[in-house]
Amino acid sequence: MQIPQKIAVVGSGLVGTLLAIYLKRQGHTVHVYDRSPDIRTVEFSGRSINLVMSHRGWKAMSDVGLDDEIRKIGIPVDKRAIHLQDGKLNYQYYGKDGEAIFSLSRGVLNRRMIDLAEAEGVEFFFNHKIWDVTLATATLHIGESERGEWTELHYDKVFGADGAFSRIRHRMQRQSMFDYSQEFMKIGYKELHIPANPDGTHKIDQNSLHIWPRGNFMLMALANLDGSFTCTLFMPFEGENSFEQLKDEATLVDFFAHYFPDTAAVIPDLVEDFFKNPTSYLVMMKCFPWTFEDKVALIGDASHAIVPFYGHGMNAGFEDITVLFEMISKYGDDWKTIFSEYEQSRKPNADAIAELSRRNFIEMSTKTADSNFLLQKKIEKWFSDKHPDKWMPLYSRVTFSLQPYSEALAIGDFQNKIMEEVMQMPNIEEKWNSVEVENKIIDLLK
Amino acid sequence: MQIPQKIAVVGSGLVGTLLAIYLKRQGHTVHVYDRSPDIRTVEFSGRSINLVMSHRGWKAMSDVGLDDEIRKIGIPVDKRAIHLQDGKLNYQYYGKDGEAIFSLSRGVLNRRMIDLAEAEGVEFFFNHKIWDVTLATATLHIGESERGEWTELHYDKVFGADGAFSRIRHRMQRQSMFDYSQEFMKIGYKELHIPANPDGTHKIDQNSLHIWPRGNFMLMALANLDGSFTCTLFMPFEGENSFEQLKDEATLVDFFAHYFPDTAAVIPDLVEDFFKNPTSYLVMMKCFPWTFEDKVALIGDASHAIVPFYGHGMNAGFEDITVLFEMISKYGDDWKTIFSEYEQSRKPNADAIAELSRRNFIEMSTKTADSNFLLQKKIEKWFSDKHPDKWMPLYSRVTFSLQPYSEALAIGDFQNKIMEEVMQMPNIEEKWNSVEVENKIIDLLK
């Protein structure tokens, strides 16, 4: 337990809420502010991509004993189901021995976590708009509008868990020596929907992450508890095969019939959903530092917004909390050191998962449709099963281990160089599981 | 001439003022706003690095007939004077046949240009603080303080020439699909001063850019008209040989005596200037897009702030104006196309000069003290003199030509690969101007 502090967490999203629980357990007074209404009282909007919880997320959950509670609302996903354009379906398992990620609906998870946080004694203030922060004194400035009257709220510490467009970071950004970048992807996304069968069962396999990889665009689907799937269409805003092109009903229907023929049976409201739901942006945001003295710290998307293609936005944010509390157990009430060690430890890992996530779009949208890529993954899995001490595939390092992301990225690049050589071996498709290939990999690993 | 517009230029710096002159010549009503007092009425602060005007800057000046006027207040600089630690002095000429850049004091130049702009009929509004802009209507929001009352100023177009921390860009940055980055260098700078001799002459050669290269830090000096020099000490904020270390008078004096022994005779007020003048930051800023419909455009540092090591911040900003007016002569009153072609044309070149400038710190602070580097430059110059059709050194492309920066960078990288091979030739230091070397370069160019 630390010396009790009065702490404000700005943002009642997943990271803000879990952080609040952690802080409350340390004996602090914790107030969570959010500019939006209580998500438990409103219908969740049609612009979400389903989340996947993996090892790092579960670690942060289980350290405060919440993992069992959350597992109840998740669906295990142990493989990719790859829908080729000719109707063929391939499966690619993520790990071994049934290792799985968990599909979670963002709205359901967030509501449940706010309930859990309130039960712990965290106080929530919804519809409270924080516009600015005085960094040196951890003072929040709150008001109805940006140009209207503001009042001050005084705290000992402020955490900015207010997402990719964080107002807390916005103030930090106006200081000298604050590095910052925001980069919008040329690819946007739109939510679509596969409803449940009349009996509440899933129309397609619930334990797969479904991908329809089509090169520069793709469709994916993740199961919900109620039998439905949240689908996401990722495609460029402009150019060939883009949102810009799909302007009218006829074009849209033709496009789906051509590229995603097997979805006709399962997405009944394609036209309505497509034109009703917004086309959303994807942004990558990086910054440094993440903290101001012992007063203010950024966490989650507010400090490192990434693209969703590795399914690690939430997991990386939850791992921020794990590392922050490792520093708290190490440094007690020395918050200056806690903050400084926290940002030093997390920054290279946030950069690494940003890079891994960016690369994974091409893996999902293009490579999963490529038989060479699938063969390479098969060889890696075969070798890894035989020599688990010598080879853990990159996806497993990132998703089923707690190895720092930056190490996973570096080792993954090294492994990829080896696999490039292996894939060049003559007749590799025939002798992929031969002693020759095995020895070649062992040699290259030396 | 275009259809007359009511145009606001935010920022009365060098780019804003020259842009205002160009716009006025087109027949527009031009108002220039600046949050600061009229620079002609105040003493110029001790945080400036002298400017150098080179070919691109002169081109923008001469297109409106102002080059002769400005040349009067500049001092030609045709070489680097490299002061080694042992007291040895080397010279490295920039171009051929007396090609020179011109040293200009920022304050003197800016005052002169505001005079010239007023003479053209441009109206200046100093001490006017623009806090925000409504992009869709080119409306400026002006007031005493950021949180106080604002009033609106309506224009047909707004140009943001308000520098690296532009408020106009700040508003654009809050839009979707606006890419932005700011990166602070680990190196800061401090202005120092070499006064004139009692008779008004210069204490050291006025036609040289003086460098004291010392690896991770350096001192440089550029001449002023009044016989003085503006000196700039560039060094890291922290670590070995850093501003952090030079905390007291004794340490400072020892440091200069050790590293810059020949400055003792010419910098009499070292201690006073050092502790009086601020240590300033260097920031690199990139963004895109630079324009909003046909209403708002960024220009100069507001759209591409670079580090000063190539001496091209002003020149790149002036070239923005040249290109903008090329588009105006091409597209007449079609401002949407003018803005769009302007940003498309300039963005890759702004990125290229940013990269060239970043690299040049190492060239100036480290390589100019390296005999191999000086030999390489000597070979390039010798070969270029013999084969002017085959080889123009990178510095000349950037500084004494109008070749787009992005092309100069690409060709420079290609030339550098060639020179790496040439420098590997056995006994190159003896046979540097031999037929063998000449033929080798000709071969590698093929």
Automatic annotation (TrEMBL), chains A, B:
<keyword id="KW-0285">Flavoprotein</keyword>
<comment type="pathway">
    <text>Cofactor biosynthesis; NAD(+) biosynthesis; quinolinate from L-kynurenine: step 1/3.</text>
</comment>
<keyword id="KW-0662">Pyridine nucleotide biosynthesis</keyword>
<keyword id="KW-0521">NADP</keyword>
<dbReference type="InterPro" id="IPR002938">
    <property type="entry name" value="FAD-bd"/>
</dbReference>
<feature type="domain" description="FAD-binding">
    <location>
        <begin position="7"/>
        <end position="355"/>
    </location>
</feature>
<comment type="similarity">
    <text>Belongs to the aromatic-ring hydroxylase family. KMO subfamily.</text>
</comment>
<keyword id="KW-0560">Oxidoreductase</keyword>
<protein>
    <recommendedName>
        <fullName>Kynurenine 3-monooxygenase</fullName>
        <ecNumber>1.14.13.9</ecNumber>
    </recommendedName>
</protein>
<dbReference type="InterPro" id="IPR036188">
    <property type="entry name" value="FAD/NAD-bd_sf"/>
</dbReference>
<dbReference type="Pfam" id="PF01494">
    <property type="entry name" value="FAD_binding_3"/>
</dbReference>
<comment type="function">
    <text>Catalyzes the hydroxylation of L-kynurenine (L-Kyn) to form 3-hydroxy-L-kynurenine (L-3OHKyn). Required for synthesis of quinolinic acid.</text>
</comment>
<keyword id="KW-0503">Monooxygenase</keyword>
<keyword id="KW-0274">FAD</keyword>
<dbReference type="InterPro" id="IPR027545">
    <property type="entry name" value="Kynurenine_monooxygenase"/>
</dbReference>
